[in-house]
Specification:
The protein is α/β, with parallel strands linked by helices. It has 7 helices and 5 strands. Helix content is 40%, strand content 14%.
Length: 190
């Protein structure tokens, strides 16, 4: 394949995300990485994933997530010419071809009903889907990472790639705790 696409919220970009992008790079010369939920003002509920549209699930901006991914891939020696980053408003299928060319194969790792629904949506939008079966027991959960950040529990650090870790550490523990606390419970994070 010439190119393949991977999409996700990447809140934050973690080791499972990196593994999926690296797998995509083994399949194609170039990977298009679509960052979903690019605009927090246009998030919509999905019955298969009751949290995706909530502020609790989206503490990092589109630009921060782009930087997390770039830093992780650079640290892992992935040449910049091998990938493209773009917004991918998953809730607005009519816009998809503006960001990822129609017909681009989409790589989706299936863990739950949400990923099955995402795969169905992409196929309905005219994108061939390559499904990989995920192992739920070994899954890295971004929700768990955000909860650890909110608690000030550093265990999240072992589940993010080195480049992303550096970016998150630059934000700082106090700010991560504040953002994730505010997002999860509505607290002021103080």
């Amino acid at each position: 394949m010439t190119r393949v696409a991977v999409t996700g919220r990447f809140q934050p970009f973690h080791t499972d995300h990196l593994a999926l992008v690296l797998h995509a790079l083994s399949l194609a010369g170039k990977v298009l990485i679509g960052i979903t939920n690019p605009d927090s003002r246009s998030l919509q509920p999905a019955p298969e994933s009751d949290h995706r549209h909530l502020p609790a699930a989206n503490p990092f901006s589109w630009f921060e997530r782009l930087q997390f991914i770039e830093a992780a891939l650079e640290h892992h020696g992935v040449a910049r010419a091998r990938y493209t980053l773009a917004p991918f408003p998953l809730d607005a299928p009519s816009t998809w071809p503006a960001y990822v060319p129609a017909g681009t194969p989409q790589l989706v790792r299936i863990f739950s009903d949400w990923e099955r629904e995402k795969s169905r949506r992409l196929a309905a939008g005219g994108y061939p889907v390559i499904e990989l079966q995920g192992e739920p027991a070994r899954r890295v959960s971004a929700s768990d990472l955000r909860a650890a950040m909110a608690r000030g529990d550093g265990t999240w650090r072992t589940h993010v790639p080195a480049g992303t870790l550096k970016m998150l550490e630059a934000i700082g523990d106090a700010e991560l705790r504040r953002r994730c606390r505010m997002a999860i419970s509505g607290e002021d994070g103080g």
